[in-house]
TrEMBL record:
Keywords: Endoplasmic reticulum, Lipid transport, Lipid-binding, Membrane, Transmembrane, Transmembrane helix, Transport. The keyword Transmembrane helix applies. Its main location: endoplasmic reticulum. GO terms for biological process: mitochondrion-endoplasmic reticulum membrane tethering; phospholipid transport. The keyword Endoplasmic reticulum applies. One of its GO terms (molecular function) is lipid binding. InterPro entries: PDZD8_N, SMP_LBD. This is Putative integral membrane protein conserved region-domain-containing protein. The lineage of its organism: Eukaryota, Fungi, Fungi incertae sedis, Zoopagomycota, Zoopagomycotina. One of its GO terms (cellular component) is ERMES complex. Residues 150-341 form the SMP-LTD domain. Pfam families: PDZD8_N.
Length: 350
């Protein structure tokens, strides 16, 4: 990082200092915070906003010696702009926490439309995260403050978990991670003989985070063992679409037929008492499991050729197998693990 920072400084040895104000898609450059003398303006909607250099580690993106770059975008109006307006700019901000605010504000202003010319669209994942979903946030706030009236010990944790969830629940990375976990589980799942291999076709994470309450510290031992019990509830509507095939016998006089099946499994309610456990060193993972089979409102709605499938044996078989998978993986004495530190495949912190 030091070498990259020095390179940036060498590329831009003369740095002018301004008090800046961003209004819509215009960045005003003033001599001081009194805003009496404007020394220049920058139309951010004529530039692409990025961090320079690119592909930095996440913990280095907002270092104060890493600039925000405004790269001039070619337009059909270039002939009416002077040389000063056609240059690239590098913005250095002394406070890392304020730099993040500036970066996101500049990204939003980049989407404005200058000179009646539409800006190139930002990638969909950028647009969706810049336009924060206010309804999901209102639901989280309502739940957190309802909890505060009942128990002052947990609102902070549910607020933190909920806010982190709302930051990532629309991302492809989270969706692909969950799909990968489901695929790993289903490959080891015992299936009825009339059902083929299961493939994940689509996934909807839901818009609510799990809700945690009634925590108890069960153990913190000198050898490093940690055990915590808590209750967890989820009403977010997690849904996964699974594609498979089924061999059906319509009548005793007809040969069995194989049909494609699209199964929509939705978790409308999920609640149980959970155990969190960290074993003594060199363990590098958090183990999670439920003391008893969680209370789960699971709705499976198979679909064949866009028509509702009326064979209850398939619905019941899939529901039974999902519950079996839960019981075999996360109901004590079985537990699932979440590594909290990379081991490079060694299985622990050595």
């Amino acid at each position: 990082m030091q070498k990259q920072a020095e390179q940036v400084q060498q590329e831009h040895p003369e740095i002018d200092t301004f008090f800046t104000v961003l209004k819509y898609d215009t960045l005003f450059l003033y001599d001081s915070d009194e805003q009496l003398a404007c020394r220049g303006v920058i139309l951010t909607s004529l530039h692409d906003v990025s961090i320079h250099p690119s592909n930095l580690p996440d913990n280095e993106v907002f270092f104060k010696d890493v600039p925000i770059r405004l790269t001039r975008r070619d337009t059909e109006h270039d002939d009416v702009l002077d040389e000063e307006s056609a240059r690239d700019y590098y913005l250095f901000i002394n406070s890392p926490v304020e730099k993040e605010d500036w970066y996101f504000a500049l990204l939003k202003s980049e989407m404005a439309q200058p000179l009646e010319e539409p800006s190139p669209p930002l990638p969909p994942h950028v647009v969706s995260t810049l336009n924060f979903d206010p309804e999901t946030m209102r639901r989280l706030i309502g739940q957190v403050y309802t909890d505060a009236d009942k128990d002052n010990s947990m609102p902070w944790l549910n607020a933190l978990v909920g806010r982190l969830f709302l930051a990532v629940y629309k991302t492809d990375l989270l969706r692909e991670h969950i799909i990968h976990k489901i695929i790993k589980k289903t490959t080891r799942l015992r299936k009825p003989g009339f059902i083929d291999d299961i493939k994940v076709r689509d996934l909807y994470v839901g818009e609510q985070s799990p809700h945690i309450w009634d925590p108890h510290l069960l153990e913190l031992s000198p050898d490093g063992t940690l055990r915590i019990a808590l209750r967890i509830r989820y009403n977010g509507g997690f849904r996964v679409e699974i594609e498979t095939g089924a061999v059906l016998s319509v009548t005793s006089h007809m040969r069995p037929i194989r049909v494609p099946v699209l199964l929509s499994a939705e978790v409308r309610h999920f609640e149980g008492r959970m155990l969190l456990k960290i074993k003594p060193p060199p363990s590098n993972r958090l183990w999670i499991g439920f003391f008893d089979m969680p209370d789960m409102d699971l709705v499976v709605e198979p679909v064949v050729s866009a028509k509702s499938l009326k064979y209850p044996m398939i619905t019941q078989a899939i529901q039974s197998r999902i519950r079996d998978m839960m019981r075999e993986t996360v109901v004590l004495p079985n537990m699932d693990d979440i590594p909290f530190f990379p081991s490079g495949g060694s299985g622990g912190i050595f």
